[in-house]
Specification:
Helix content: 40-55%
Structural class: alpha/beta
Largest sheet: 8 strands, parallel
Number of strands: 14
Strand order of the largest sheet: 4-5-6-7-8-9-10-13
Radius of gyration: 24 Å
Shape: globular
Strand content: 5-15%
């Protein structure tokens, strides 16, 4: 840091000096504050929300000081199914969006348009089609390729398939972002797969939301970091990003009783995804497309999306439309009246109730333990923010009974899947940037992940000011110049003459993060 004046003209920084004398249309007195480059979020899903014009300002990001975002993550992107990359770029440029955005093409989306959700290796013809779609996206302005190797259909791909597509990206100077194949007990193998893809395809590789989930796997990040640093020593460019929270998942609010336990009741009485699919199967292709159009967030359908739908075999069209319109959560668990009746009936049977209690206890103890489940949303407001262990103590009952009681009242919990020592160890690495893994919701609406509103200020507040895990310079670099280097942007990420005037001004003395898991928009 240095004490300097900054002059801006248009969207560029034109002069930096200890003192600038001159006339300006506007002067901002930043005395006593810190001035940084605008923050760069390496991992977001805001492109999904920005299909709705009301979300395009991305106020939840701008108000954190975020001025650039990387989208199309985890193997999912808006193209090539819904449109071409140039269509999205044209729309956003013409209509305007809040932050700058860089687009990745999603491997999962490419695979789905060519192969559907089939669990098999692609034929030589299919791999060529996928390579052509990736090349099309790169020609039109994509910055690289993303994978979600933990999600269907990306999880069906072998390493060699990803390498073939990454080779298309390499000549463009593109980057490979990956939600790696495993963030639990196979973390080391998954990191080594990303390193292999980087080395074989000859491009930069970036590991998304780097972490180890599940109590039994805490500490594995040290070995994973050693593998990455060994690859770096060989000349490979391997980096990662991280969000500063112990809880994961795009929507962190989960039931306390795993749905598989409630679903273990009599199969004949249950509503399943297969039942829903049978209903859709009775519709004609045209009827399915019309139904999808009525509720699709992408309506009116682009010609490319319409052609994709109408060109699908009937069984694939049924699967695509059914999975798009009906989620398993729509008909699972005690918040669904039918499911609630079945759950209560089972709990009234002593043998079934004993079986459920044992299953719940085993599931919670095996993964995290009752002390690592926090009540996020609950009819009994006094319990919000408390751990399952604390709720059990308050009620004077075993934690499995507390979990069942909370679940039957519709409570949602947040499992603390990561541990603080791992978060702090990763954060201290000079090759780890910051990524929120957040969406762009209607501003101030809904139970979204708290990181959609607080990732960047929280990192400074919690890990620099309150608990000095890293220095202020280290934290700012992880949000600015490091992400710019990772993405190979030479016009932003620094306060330099000639660079983009993406700037954040921060009053450290007043920096607060009042959002809570029960009220994430604050």
């Amino acid at each position: 840091p240095a004490r300097l004046d900054i002059a801006v003209k248009g969207d560029k920084i034109v002069k930096i000096a200890p003192s600038i004398d001159g006339v300006a249309a506007r002067t901002i007195d930043a005395s006593g504050k810190i001035v940084t480059p605008g923050f760069i979020d390496l991992h977001t899903h805001v492109d999904e929300g920005m299909y709705f014009p009301e979300n395009r300002a991305c106020l939840n990001f701008l108000r954190q000081g975020v001025t650039s975002v990387v989208v199309g993550q985890c193997g999912g992107s808006a193209w090539p199914i819904f449109e071409e990359a140039r269509d999205l770029i044209k729309t956003w440029t013409a209509e305007g969006i809040g932050p700058n955005a860089a687009l990745l093409v999603g491997h999962g989306q490419v695979r789905e348009i060519v192969m559907g959700r089939e669990n098999r290796a692609p034929t030589p013809g299919e791999i060529e089609k996928m390579k052509a779609l990736v090349k099309e996206a790169m020609d039109q302005g994509a910055s690289g390729l993303s994978t979600g190797l933990i999600y269907v259909p990306g999880s069906y791909a072998k390493t060699d398939e990803v390498i073939e597509l990454a080779k298309i990206v390499a000549p463009y100077g593109g980057i490979y972002h990956s939600h790696i194949r495993n963030e639990r007990d196979k973390l080391i193998e998954a990191v080594n797969e990303a390193i292999r893809i980087s080395e074989t395809a000859g491009l930069r590789a970036h590991i998304s939301h780097f972490k180890a989930m599940g109590r039994a796997n805490w500490g594995l990040v040290k070995e994973a970091c050693a593998a990455i640093e060994a690859a770096q020593a060989k000349g490979l460019r391997i980096t990662a990003d991280q969000y500063p929270y112990r809880f994961a998942n795009g929507t962190p609010y989960e039931p306390l009783v795993p749905r598989s336990i409630w679903a273990s009741g009599p199969a004949a009485e249950r509503i399943s995804a297969t039942d829903i699919t049978r209903v859709f199967d009775k519709l004609s292709g045209a009827e399915l497309v019309d139904l999808y159009k009525k509720v699709s967030p992408f309506a009116p359908l682009s010609e490319r999306h319409r052609a994709f739908l109408t060109g699908l075999p009937h069984n694939r069209l049924v699967s695509y439309v059914a999975s798009s319109l009906v989620q398993p959560s729509d008909f699972q668990g005690p918040t669904n009246r039918h499911e609630r009746a079945l759950s209560l009936r089972r709990m009234a049977d002593p043998a079934e109730a004993a079986k459920i209690r044992k299953q719940v206890r085993t599931a919670i103890e095996t993964d995290l333990g009752p002390e690592n489940y926090v009540v996020g949303v609950c009819a009994e407001k006094s319990l919000e923010g408390k751990t399952l262990a604390e709720v059990a103590a308050i009620k004077g009952i075993p934690f499995e009974d507390a979990a069942i009681e909370l679940d039957l009242m519709g409570a949602r919990c947040i499992p603390l899947k990561m541990c603080e020592p791992d978060i702090e160890y990763i954060m201290a690495k000079d090759w780890v940037g910051t990524g929120s893994d957040a969406v762009s919701p209607p501003y101030g609406v809904g139970l979204v992940h708290i990181r959609a509103y607080t990732t960047f200020p929280r990192k400074i507040k919690n890990y620099v000011l309150d608990k000095p895990v890293v220095s202020l310079s280290h934290a700012v670099r992880s949000m600015t110049s490091l992400p710019a280097r990772i993405m190979e942007w030479d016009d932003r990420g620094w306060i330099k003459e000639g660079y983009r005037a993406d700037i954040a001004v921060i009053d450290l003395a007043k920096l607060e993060t009042p959002a809570t898991i029960s009220n994430p928009q604050r």
